[in-house]
Design brief:
By secondary structure, the chain is mainly alpha-helical. It is built from three helices and no strands. The longest helix is centred in the last third of the chain and has 22 residues.
């Protein structure tokens, strides 16, 4: 999936006096800069956007599947593990409701 997709987007923005509502995105931005690109810019010279895109995709796989997170309700799980746990919980709830019906 490319970083930049050309299409019509209807976006929204957070309230200026309340940066907490944009905290998840800010956290990802900070992690991308601090853990990957500030380090990569010291050692790599990106010739094209495609090269940067490949590096970005590698980091996003690491970020979602291997890097544990300390955020709200994450309990040091990866986002992928959090997602799988949520699906498991949803199926358990559905099973409970189907038994009650």
């Amino acid at each position: 999936m490319p970083i930049i997709v050309v299409q019509t987007l209807n976006g929204s923005s957070s309230f200026i006096p309340r940066p907490q509502s944009n905290g998840y995105v800010e956290s990802l931005d900070r992690a991308l800069l601090d853990e990957r690109f500030r380090v990569a810019y010291r050692t790599n010279f990106y010739v094209s956007v495609h090269d940067m895109e490949k590096d970005f995709q590698v980091y996003i796989k690491f970020y979602n599947n291997e890097r544990s997170h300390q955020g709200r309700n994450m309990n040091r799980r990866t986002p992928y593990q959090f997602f799988l746990d949520g699906i498991r919980e949803l199926k358990q709830r559905e099973d409970q409701y189907s038994k009650l019906s």
